[in-house]
């Protein structure tokens, strides 16, 4: 098999930086060796170089930083074309923009076109794994999975389940949602690098019958993911209490239907109490914190201190199109500010962990992605400290790893992503993408 190697600064993790000062592993002059889509070794150049097979090409990237590919734990691909649509809160935003936009996915050609653009955008931002909501239409999931499979990406996605409290044109039924989900699991789950997520949009848009059917699927397929929203907005929380009387909390509704477990990922988790958070910790369900969305829609502030205290598993997410950026760097930027507003210090090293190895661990994918550990899949990002004049000035003055990572998180976005690799293959090159865009603009003019 052919090896390839990358000489660069390397960052990986062997634990949570909040728990150990040795959790981040940084090599100033590092070597990453890749073979057959997997990592063979990552560490100091001096110790790795003698292991290289004769003739192995070494990519010289000594002025760049390689980190594991970013993991976005909550994003809606059908909302790509409505990003940056403002509304006075979640529920009016869903009615005014989201549902009409998602109707467009009745057309499989539109779904395919959007999926292609969406995946390009993820890769341009260095995101190699995402938990993706499709629409209620089965074809929308096929379009996303086909696009991901064609680039050999590790993606998790699912068709939305929604049989009430939305326009008629977007409804499935408990039975059709069950059948379509089972069919999609058969077609895509664990096919290559694709994985399926049961996707009840949120409790208000599913009847008791649909929630039960979803719980039944969860029992039948114990290793599929589950994704939904919980406790994002105060009006939503009130509505759920009216729709599901007798439950201790909003989270308890999902618990009742058997939807809290490992690989269950809940977007937002703002208005939880400690009993809820401890229940998340006990079941292994994961909170996907979506700071750009929470600020844009005015939803509220995620409580990092309470998450730490209760051991609630946590990861970061964009929540595009409620979120305002595809970039996990920009997501870290806003996460840091949300934390500050609650009096909590979120270090840059911890933010990089939450967007890579921490997310992989929370998602039960740590043996495959999220680090540069040997035998894991070679998904990684090459970051450019000189991407912009300001970033160059700031990074040249950084005195620690955390300062360097802060500069990337606070000042970086897709411009800072020089290259993205999935399963050892380059799937994005910033400068080629820029040249392509410039050529297209010239031809159009
Ligand atoms: N709650 C239910 N659906 C959605 C959605 O599409 N985006 C967000 N942010 N919250 C939701
Ligand atoms: Zn969402």
TrEMBL record:
It is an enzyme of class 3 (hydrolase). SUPFAM superfamilies: Composite domain of metallo-dependent hydrolases, Metallo-dependent hydrolases. Its EC number is 3.5.4.3. One of its GO terms (cellular component) is cytosol. GO terms for biological process: guanine catabolic process. Residues 66-427 form the Amidohydrolase-related domain. One of its GO terms (molecular function) is zinc ion binding. Belongs to the metallo-dependent hydrolases superfamily. ATZ/TRZ family. NCBIfam families: guan_deamin, PRK09228.1. This is Guanine deaminase.
